[in-house]
Amino acid sequence: MTTIDASRPIDLASRPDNYLTHTRGFMSWALTLDHKRIGVMYMVAVLVSFFVGGVFALLVRTELLTPGQTIPGVTADVYNQLFTLHGAIMVFLVIIPSIPAALGNFVLPIMLGAKDVAFPRLNLGSFYLWLFGAAFTLVSLAMGGFDTGWTFYTPYSTTTTAGGVIPVLFGVFILGFSSIFTGMNFVVTVHKLRPPGMTWFRMPLFLWALYSTALIQVLATPVLAITLMLLVVERTINIGIFDPSMGGDPVLFQHFFWFYSHPAVYIMILPAMGIISELISVHAHRHIFGYKFIALSSIAIAIFSFLVWGHHMFASGQSPLLNTLFSLISFSVAIPSAVKVFNWLTTLYKGNISLTTPMMYALSFLVLFTIGGLTGIHLATLNTDVHLHDTYFVVAHFHYVMMGSALIGMIGGLHHWWPKMTGKMYSERTGTAACIIIFIGFNVTFFTQFFLGSQGMPRRYYDYQPEFQVYHVISTIGSYIMASGFLLTAYCLITSLFSGKKAAANPWGGGSLEWQCASPPPHDNFATQPSVGDCYDFRALKWDEATQGYEIDPALAAEAAKHPLH
Amino acid sequence: MSTIPNTHGSAHDDHGHHGHGDHAKYPFLQHHFETPAHQFDSAKLGMWLFLATEVLFFGGLFVAYAVLRTRFPEVFSYASHYLNTLMGGVNTCVLILSSLTMAMAVRFAQTNKKNAMLICLVLTFMGAVGFMVIKYFEYTHKIHEHLVWGKTFYVPPHTEEGEAEKLVLSTAPPPPPATLTVANPAAPAVPTLAATPPVEASAIKPASAAPAGLATAREMAKAEHLPVASDDPAMAHPTLHLADPKMPANTHLFFAIYYCMTGLHGIHVLAGMVMLAWLIWRGARGDFSSNYFTPVDVGGLYWHIVDLVWIFLFPLFYLIH
Predict the structure, then answer these.
(1) Are the Cβ atoms of A15 and B53 closer than 8 angstroms?
(2) What is the ipTM of this complex?
């Protein structure tokens, strides 16, 4: 139970400022050590990259409206560059950093009642590394681009004369270190900066998710780094490690690459799952069901994620024994994910569900993640994967989990913490409408692609048989619907900055510590370290019409204290 | 349960001077940590995590080493003879001694013995320099002998023999395939098993002239009926300058992984030297004391892992026999 420190009375008049207004000027942002400002800078950077990657996606989809060339100037080679850039930007610049670096940086210390992350200077360093990595990607475009696919498979990536390959490899290498340092920061922060009373099993579930993600970031990303370095070395001095004519093995690259890139997809999804735990419990005003199971399933997913990389390589010629092992373990990695989904559903059951925009995104997540996860089982099954490998079925599956789940989770979290970050409320009507448009557009785009894939349309193909055209047209129309949904979301959020209502400290009725400081928070978050109770116990909260937010009602609090839930 | 929302934030303006005793007493103590011990523990945990990333970073190359050595064991046992075990051994001792001086530097920092700490840091730095000097000699010697990676592994000299060797080394064009004719156009396209003539045992080509792992390039070329330059024993093998007909094929892979791993390690030694120089500069300035020695301590951890990686590299490359 957090106590007020009577020796330091609240003095609103002398401290009306917040982290946004605390200091002013470009350099105060460029050299900031404030995790909140760093989080905001990351968010802007990630959202800009998302729109750039989205433009590439729309180009790809538009090109696929007809077999052969559709857009003047987009030849097959240009098309290859378009989908490669779409993938590389989305994976490395958007989805992997988005939740940990943008939302996590902002929320994690405040949820812990701390003043900052453990290593604020390293945090700023991580942001600048992201910028350098992004700059290298731009440089690679200027130097001729690259068309290897975001997966850089050998032998094409080692032998192609495309000039942009080495710069982008360096760019991704640098981005990897941005990710590693964020992970290190979060692990130490969660270990060392928890307040008195917040044991591991009293942390909000978002922190369990961020912690598990950070473990993966720290352990898996270095393997990507060395893989990319080997690729650079191979391209420059031709050591032959991936070249059969020199005794090497191109499949070895795939093993190295996927040893990181599979855990990477869990870096993408785990934080989103953490957000969903928060969104569902807060907006259904119901204690999360199965807290320990959800918390430990995050750790289980992190561990299992290192054991399944070979399921990307079922058709690569690796041994049947390896195929079987990877298939079996891939099945089992679905179990902790399913545990979470069932716990969330149970939390919703008999909850007092407010259909706010964050809740709409959470519900979207539940539908889309279920579809994405189940179709992952199709691909984990060896005999069906032989048919579906490298088809649009795979494309649809990973968009359902990466976009329909991870990205939707991030956007939902953005809406959930938007009042906290900006001090403004957005229009619920616009936000909800945008969410519905995105949901419809997403399904039209990607559900169609399951049919495309199972009927044999290969992925990364510029040209296709005429019988697939109707599906491609439907999918492209869906992508335009989705794009307009995202534009509406952007409009909704940006206009709220100018004309949104002032946000209360606790507009949604959350119980974790970030809802106990002002919206936006002051520069150093908390004056004294708060002590904590059960952050999913909402019984003491009461809606206050005057502040348009939830307040602690002492009577309800006393009543609730008599009957602790856990 | 919870509280009146904490809207006022902090009652103080800036970080250095408030009523919080520890922060006033210890200027290095950052605002988000309670006590110096708290900050130190966190820094150490952070450095251990970074070391874990280094282990995984090198780990990728160790895996590559394992894959290559499993595939080509003869290459590794043969080529390691070209490494100078004495120089490698001296390097190992130099690094271990530098780890000792580093640990001593940490101890002296903890016990406020500034001069002794600086001497030990400088000795550690000298150890690193010594390591790089020996490495420089090793590398230049090998490069001079063409013991390098990939296709530059052994370039024939510009002599008559050298030009002839180039013929053997270059990819010889395969013999043109025999013209295909259809024996009996009226026969069914897929022959039945009964209709297939029996194959004589002598007609079955042996897989290779020698067990694959131990064949020399020349023997393998002959087994595949590729042209070889001549049967003159002086020209018997592409890597003539080593005058060793027993050199296995793909020996360049040993040197590729050798340079990759020792090179990456060397880069980390150089980074360590930069770190040590920074510690010496800060130490000379008087930044470190028994109250605050974190950079020396975590720098020491980094240096120890650089040493540890070498202790694995040395037997894996130099002591394969």
Answers:
(1) no
(2) 0.91
